[in-house]
Amino acid sequence: MSSEAIAREVKRRRTFAIISHPDAGKSTMTEALALHARMISEAGAVHGKGGRRSTVSDWMEMEKARGISISSTALQFAYEAEHGDGAPNVINLVDTPGHADFSEDTYRVLTAVDAAVMLIDAAKGLEPQTLKLFQVCRHRGIPVITVVNKWDRPGQTPLELIDEITDRIGLIPTPLYVPVGIAGDYRGLLDRRTGEFIRFTRTAGGSKIAPEEIFGADAAAESEGDAWTSAVEESELLAEMGQDHDQEMFLAGQTSPMIFTSAMLNFGVRQLLEALVEFAPPPEGRVGVDGTERTVTDPFSAVVFKVQAGMDTSHRDRLAYMRIVSGEFERGMVVTHAQTGKPFATKYAQAVFGRDRATVDTAYPGDVVGLVNAMALAPGDTLFTDPRIEYPPIPSFAPEHFSALRVTTADKYKQFRKAIDQLDAEGVVQVLRNDLRGDASPVLAAVGPMQFEVVTARMKAEFNVDTVLEPLGYSLARRTDEASAPELTRQRGVEVFSRSDGALLALFSDKWRLQFIEKEFSDLTLAPLVAAA
Ligand code: GDP
């Protein structure tokens, strides 16, 4: 394919993730988006509300038992935008695990997207997990579109929500539309750019695209009365405060276009798609570790951002998800794995959403492709066709949960060693060791405690090793150095470990212990670990 043709493919692509707290409506919104668009890599994954459970991966037994998703995959659909250039856009929605437990994957997904939709519940406003994920977006410079969902239910006022976001995270919302009707009485939107009223009509059970009618200001004032007047006043107030969309400030992460939706009624969903197409940036090239730049039309390259081991007997394999950075991907092409220099055959490239898979034949920058039986690949790895390129690794995240792992079958020690090294290399958990505990009982460190169960389950299923976990009373880690280690080791409630990447980590029982030690021994090296970068 010519580079002009690749450039066209790139230009029409948008790759994003939804960041939200559980229950804000991410699954419902995902379905609503799919309803408004034509599925490309459908794979039978999303079939309206009734099919909701099927959007949840049940890859592992554990997931099945809990009915939650551990995996993060991608959904691709075509959308013909009103403001587009005629050719449909290709939207990649990369799924973040949507449950209360947090894992390294949640963060890693955000290394694969170009924009994020921060979905908040109109009644609850900013919630803890939204905040955590938002910090990752800010750190990585990912522009954020804010969506206030559940506007069909009673909630806060638009100005209260705007103030909360401005005050708590310093992001300035720039509403593209102002809702007509308070939360709980969602009638439609005032389009701030045209001054028109977009009226929505409910469909039975919210199962269809909500019909829209457009009215001028006078007609809206007549039919909607005070609800319209308030919307106009809010819009004017926002304009006075300078809270109009500014593309440069949005891309710089300073402002956030804001939309009010009801994912359940499909209200405002089309407006969200339009905003993604109009404002979210298309995929861009990246810079390699040696400083060389790869533009999107250069030869093929991709970054692995997640590796998943199949535990289900019908899918007993390993999937690596790569985000394409440059060039055209054709299934069957042989690429090079930068970390080992070895060739990697891509015969079994798949689009994966939940448990459903479809074969992918071609893909372009911004797309996510699952590679089957990718035994050698780990998160952060680069794949390329010549010339060689290697992208910077995904940094490891600050763990908050720590457990010692012990093998209970005495003669399985060698297997245990092998399994631990493998899970460490895959980035499932961070593995910490020190002389005191010895090799037989390494300490696992993770962002979310569910990762520990993934480890014990895989130990058993793949290596036939029984293990037990012993939760440790540590809750935070700091990076330290050889000089500080002896003093730290002497302290109560502190333990020093080395991580497999060579970093020395000091674990603390709680932040008070850390604060006390920092005060007592001000010359010790205790650097915060990057939450995610
Ligand atoms: P997730 O945990 O973020 O994926 O949230 P879900 O999509 O599962 O939604 C959580 C609950 O909120 C479900 O009962 C949904 O039906 C409901 N819900 C989602 N969006 C809306 C909405 O726009 N309005 C109302 N009233 N309920 C919603």
Note the gap between the termini. Answer: 34 Å
Number of β-strand runs: 32
Shape: globular
> Helical element count?
14
Question: Main beta sheet: strand number and arrangement?
Answer: 8 strands, mixed
Structural class: alpha+beta
Q: What would you report as the Rg, rounded to the nearest angstrom?
A: 24 Å
Mean pLDDT: 86
Bound ligands, each once = guanosine-5'-diphosphate
Strand content bin = 25-35%
Q: Detail the poorly predicted runs.
A: 41-72
Instruction: Please give the share of residues in helix.
Output: 25-40%
Spatial strand order of the main sheet: 2-3-4-1-5-6-12-7
Structure description:
The structure is a single chain. With 533 residues, this protein is an alpha+beta fold. The chain is globular, with a radius of gyration of 24 Å. The relative contact order is 0.12. Residues 41-72 have low confidence and may be disordered. A hairpin with a 5-residue loop joins strand 9 (188-191) and strand 10 (197-200). The strands form 6 sheets. The chain has an 8-stranded mixed β-sheet, sandwiched between helices. The protein has an 8-stranded antiparallel β-sheet with strand order 19-18-24-15-16-23-20-21. The protein has 14 helices and 32 strands. Helix 7 packs across helix 8 (226-240) and helix 11 packs across helix 12 (450-463). Guanosine-5'-diphosphate (GDP) is lined by residues 20, 22-28, 98, 149-150, 152-153, 262-264. This is Peptide chain release factor 3. It comes from Gordonia caeni. It holds the Pfam family RF3_C. Residues 11-284 form the Tr-type G domain. Keywords: Cytoplasm, GTP-binding, Nucleotide-binding, Protein biosynthesis.
